[in-house]
Design goal:
With 130 residues, this protein is α+β, with helices and mostly antiparallel strands. Helices cover 14% and strands 34% of the residues. Strands 1, 2, 5, 8 and 9 form a five-stranded mixed beta sheet that branches. It has a four-stranded antiparallel beta sheet with strand order 4-3-6-7, with no helix packed on it.
Length: 130
């Protein structure tokens, strides 16, 4: 009887450890066959997400298997959403190819005029070095 309880306890510990093995989704994000750094990757409907590294690579660890939608987006590019099915103990490799957004802003030009103001009347701190 004592052996049965020890076996049952060890079986429960092993089973809980196996169930907690994270499943991984990884890949790269490209634009015009060049790696896209600092793009945002997220699993829609969850708190899981990441940002691509300097080589365009990403890696997300998902706790539970299931069907998800992954969104890749970056400033100046159209977002892309792909479905993914994560099975037990599976590593999924998924690449994204983002297209530039033609509606994004071009450069921003800031202009100003210079009006002579004394140091005491200036709204910002002014220091003079000579």
């Amino acid at each position: 009887m004592k052996f049965f309880f020890i076996f049952l306890t060890l079986f429960g510990i092993v089973l809980s450890a196996v169930c907690q093995i994270p499943h991984t989704v990884s890949g790269n994000v490209y634009s015009a066959n060049e790696p896209l750094k600092f793009a945002s990757i997220s699993l829609i409907g969850t708190k899981h997400g990441t940002i691509t590294d300097s080589l365009g690579g990403y890696k997300i660890s998902v706790i539970l298997p299931g069907t998800y939608r992954i969104k890749a987006s970056a400033v100046g590019y159209l977002p892309l959403i792909k479905p993914v099915i994560i099975a037990d103990s599976q590593l999924v490799d998924m690449d994204f190819y983002l297209m530039p957004d033609g509606k994004s802003l071009n450069e921003v030009v800031i202009t100003g005029t210079l009006k002579e103001v004394s140091r005491l009347e200036s709204p910002v701190a002014v220091e003079v070095y000579s």
